[in-house]
C-alpha cells in the first residue's frame, strides 16, 4: 500500500511538472530568435515601420529579433507563412488592413482565413493616404481644380498604386467613380516604382500612403492636394483633409497590427501586446513615426478584431466599385 501511495504521489508530481514546464518556457520567452514576417518588399512603409518596432521590442523584451520579407499576392504569401508556422511565439506577422478586411473579398481563393488561422496581438500604426499629383505635369493646385482638369482631359487620367486591391487602388477607384472621372488604374510594385512614373508624366494621380510620399512632397516635385485622415496631418498642416477639400465621407486610413499563429500561448501574446502598448507611448517613437508619415498605435488584441469587423462592409463595397478580382 505504501508503495502504491508513493507511486501515485510521484506520478502526480510528474504531471504537475508537465504543466509547469510550458509556463516556465513562456516566462523565459524569448529564448531563441523571434522572426517578424513582413509580407511586403523591403524599403516600403510596412517594412520601415516594422523595423522601428522590432528595435524597441528587442530593447524591452531582450533576445534577437529578425525581419524576414516575404512579399507577393497582396501580402497573402507572407501571412500564410505566419498562419502555418509553429504557434510557439517565435513567428510574428506584420499584417495590414488588407489582410484583415480586404483580401477575402478580392481573392477568389485564399489559403488562410483571418479569423480562423491568425490571432491579433496589438494595433501597431495607422497612416493616411494622400492625394498627390506631379507638379511639372498637372497644373491643379487644389482638389477641386484637379477634378475639373481630369474630367476635361481627353482620355481621362491614369492613377497609380502599389498593386490591385491595395488601399491606394481602392481609394483611387472610389475617387474617380464618385467624381465622374475616367480613370485607368496602373498597378506598380510599390511606391518606389509609382513615383518615377509620375515624375515622367506617365501617371497623373495617386492616392497613396503618405509615408511613401513625404520626402517627394517636401521636395515640391509632387503636390499634395488632400489627406484622407479625419484631421490634418501634423507635419503637413497646410494640406487640407478630403472633407475640407470638398469631398465628404472620404476618410480612409491604412492601419496595421502584429499577428501570430492562432494557437500561440496567450501569455506570450499578452507579453508582446503590453510591450507594444508601452512602446506606443514613448515620445521618441511617436516622433519617428510621425516623421515617417504614420501614427504609432498600441492596443489590446480584441481592439484589432473589433476594427477589422467594423471596416469589412466598407472595403467590400470599395472592392465592388473597383471591379477588382484576383485568383
From TrEMBL:
Xref: InterPro entries: BUG (IPR005064), Bug_dom1 (IPR042100)
Family membership noted in the UniProt record: Belongs to the UPF0065 (bug) family.
N-terminal signal peptide: 1-25
Cited Pfam families: TctC
Lineage: superkingdom: Bacteria
Keyword annotations from UniProtKB, A to Z: Signal
Organism: Enterovirga aerilata
Name of the protein in question: Tripartite tricarboxylate transporter substrate binding protein
Amino acid at each position: 500500500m505504501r508503495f502504491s501511495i508513493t507511486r501515485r504521489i510521484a506520478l502526480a508530481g510528474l504531471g504537475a511538472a508537465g504543466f509547469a514546464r510550458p509556463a516556465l518556457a513562456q516566462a523565459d520567452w524569448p529564448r531563441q530568435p523571434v522572426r517578424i514576417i513582413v509580407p511586403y518588399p523591403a524599403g516600403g512603409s510596412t517594412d520601415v515601420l516594422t523595423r522601428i518596432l522590432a528595435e524597441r521590442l528587442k530593447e524591452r523584451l531582450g533576445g534577437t529579433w529578425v525581419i524576414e520579407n516575404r512579399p507577393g499576392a497582396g501580402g497573402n504569401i507572407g501571412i500564410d507563412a505566419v498562419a502555418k508556422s509553429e504557434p510557439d511565439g517565435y513567428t510574428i506577422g506584420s499584417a495590414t488592413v488588407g489582410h484583415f478586411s480586404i483580401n477575402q473579398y478580392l481573392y477568389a481563393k485564399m489559403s488562410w482565413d483571418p479569423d480562423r488561422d491568425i490571432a491579433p496581438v496589438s494595433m501597431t500604426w495607422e497612416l493616411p493616404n494622400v492625394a498627390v499629383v506631379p507638379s511639372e505635369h498637372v497644373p491643379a493646385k487644389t482638389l477641386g481644380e484637379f477634378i475639373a482638369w481630369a474630367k476635361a482631359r481627353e482620355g481621362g487620367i491614369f492613377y497609380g498604386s502599389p498593386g490591385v486591391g491595395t488601399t491606394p487602388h481602392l481609394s483611387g477607384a472610389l475617387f474617380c467613380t464618385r467624381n465622374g472621372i475616367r480613370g485607368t488604374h496602373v498597378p506598380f510594385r510599390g511606391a518606389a516604382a509609382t513615383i518615377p512614373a509620375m515624375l515622367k508624366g506617365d501617371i497623373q494621380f495617386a492616392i497613396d500612403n503618405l509615408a511613401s510620399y513625404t520626402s517627394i512632397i517636401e521636395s515640391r516635385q509632387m503636390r499634395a492636394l488632400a489627406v484622407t485622415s479625419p484631421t490634418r496631418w501634423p507635419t503637413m498642416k497646410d494640406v487640407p483633409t478630403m472633407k475640407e477639400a470638398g469631398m465628404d465621407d472620404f476618410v480612409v486610413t491604412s492601419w496595421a497590427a502584429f499577428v501570430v499563429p492562432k494557437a500561440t500561448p496567450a501569455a506570450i501574446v499578452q507579453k508582446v501586446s503590453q510591450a507594444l502598448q508601452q512602446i506606443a507611448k514613448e515620445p521618441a517613437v511617436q516622433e519617428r513615426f510621425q516623421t515617417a508619415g504614420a501614427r504609432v498605435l498600441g492596443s489590446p488584441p480584441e481592439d484589432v478584431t473589433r476594427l477589422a469587423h467594423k471596416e469589412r462592409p466598407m472595403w467590400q463595397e470599395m472592392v465592388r466599385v473597383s471591379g477588382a478580382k484576383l485568383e
